[in-house]
Amino acid sequence: MSKTGAKLSRRLVARIFAGLAWLGSHELSVLLSAVVLSAGAWAFVELADEVAEGESLSIDETVLLSLRNSGDLSDPIGPGWVEEMGRDFTALGSMGVLTLITLAVLGYLLLEGRNRASLFTLIAVSGGMLLSTVLKMGFDRARPDLVPHDTVVYTASFPSGHSMMAAVTYLTLAAILSRVHHGALLKAYLLIIAAVITLLVGVSRVYLGVHWPTDVLAGWAAGAAWAALCWLIARALQRRHLVEDQEPDIR
Residue 176 and residue 216: Cα distance in Å, rounded? Predict the structure, then answer.
């Protein structure tokens, strides 16, 4: 290879590595969000198809019954304090608790002078909750009748409203808060806490016998997809200076 060709090859390789480094430092989060959005939407569609055709009923029943004492289906497995904890966890996905937490975050953003971020957050969370309601009404799946319900239920079963609204609220709030603050550790902490709470809410719904496992999986998928979409929109609006950007990183 000539010296000119070797020099061009080195330049090409250097540019490729520089492009990958730029992608990793600036666009990796965008790529991950796009993956979550696509995977969540795909998973929801697949689950909805399985539920509509009745193909998920067998595994739904198996999982639900595995969480009950075989001699008394009204009794969830584990000691009484576990059942009480299940009710505590499920309350974290209730409309009352989610509303209070959303209002608290909105107040925080307003006090920080991030008025447009506060408005976007309100629209994002409210839109997700509305989507959850519309999906429930559209599918209108019956609640599990294999075991007694350990908490009061009012709406249809698919997708799980608590699971989806928990994902919508906690993940969306965490995603938006991570967009207005610096620090990778803080961002990771917010997202991990939101994900853990969302998981606990969903598991508690199956444990208490008020949802089929596929209801919860669909709620998680739709809620995560919505949160990822909101993150991408927030990022786009910040780049256009329509929503407040991150604080300067002073160190």
Answer: 24
Bond prior to 159 in cis (omega within 30° of 0): yes
Pairing relationship of beta strands 72-76 and 68-69 according to DSSP bridges: antiparallel
**Is 26 an active-site residue?**
no
pLDDT for 58-108, tens place per residue? 888 888 888 777 776 676 777 788 888 888 898 898 888 999 999 998 998
- In 3D space, the residue among 233, 154, 241, 167 whose CA is nearest the CA of residue 203 turns out to be 167
Q: How far apart are CA 235 and CA 30, in angstroms?
A: 9
Domain extents in the chain:
30-239
113 Rama class: left (phi>0) / alpha (psi -120 to 50) / beta: left
Q: Is 211 labeled as catalytic in the residue annotation?
A: yes
Q: What pTM did the predictor assign?
A: 0.77
26, 149, 181, 211: the active-site residue? 211
Structure tokens at 148: 């007694």
Give the residue, 17 or 115, on which the prediction is more confident. Answer: 115
